[in-house]
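Per-record layout

source: Selaginella moellendorffii
name: AB hydrolase-1 domain-containing protein
length: 293
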Amino acid sequence: AYDLVQGPLVRWSEARDKATPEPPTAVFLHGILGCRKNWASFARRLAKEFPAWQFLLVDLRCHGDSSLMPGSHTVSSSALDVLKLLGKLRLTPRILVGHSFGGKVVLSMIDQAAKPLARPVQAWILDATPGEIRAGGGGEDHPAELIEALRRLPAQVPSRRVVLNSLTDFGFSEEIAKWMTTNLKPARDSSDLFWTFDLNGISDMYRSYEDTNLWNLVDNVPEGVHLNFLRAERSLHRWAHEDIQRIDDAEASASNEGAGVDLHVLEDSGHWVHADNPDGLFRTLTPSFNTIQ
């Protein structure tokens, strides 16, 4: 499932004829336990600033309106889902943005693309590293603990307040608890609310997120690809010194024309960068839209 947020100058549609030029497109991917709506207000802001662009917001498998998808639930399969969607829509994105799990999906998309993506393409990997994931300890700091807490809740609940109270009782912050209630929808046959995600599938996805290693792509950046890693200043995920050093080394060795690697730091932000410091994130990303026409 996806939403397409378009700037006011965009005239493209899925039913377009071949004479209608494709506008520059950016893809935005959420993290574990998120959904495409996480990016909605940010995309609308970008569309206002860059009226000739369009922004594809995707529900990854097991999340939101993409909860019922067959096959294995991994970083790789999630990336292939998005590549197939782009093929179906006949879109060639110029910018890829992924938060956390979605950041690894962006890397896997570049790694798996059957034919080269648009050149140049800017990829933004927000608060995720290419290899081992070192989540912080305790409560809200560790998504695996949040997944296990959600398993303790019933499949249907009478109200969002029940979820808020339960998760805060389990030790999670009110902000995290409120965010989780965005994954609830009214049931058709009762007044209860039900979860929109596939929690078992998400658990598999998180294990894949921890285990998937895409350092080889970073060490050998394809021509025309620019990888931008963004580390949140107060990240819940520990960035090891060796991770930062390896990205710095990749930056120095990315010598192909148009290829590159950069590491950015988003100040005054925790892991949820688009919620904690949307203004800072906007300022960080906008140069990419200015340099690609």
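summary: The longest strand covers residues 260-270. The mean pLDDT is 90.
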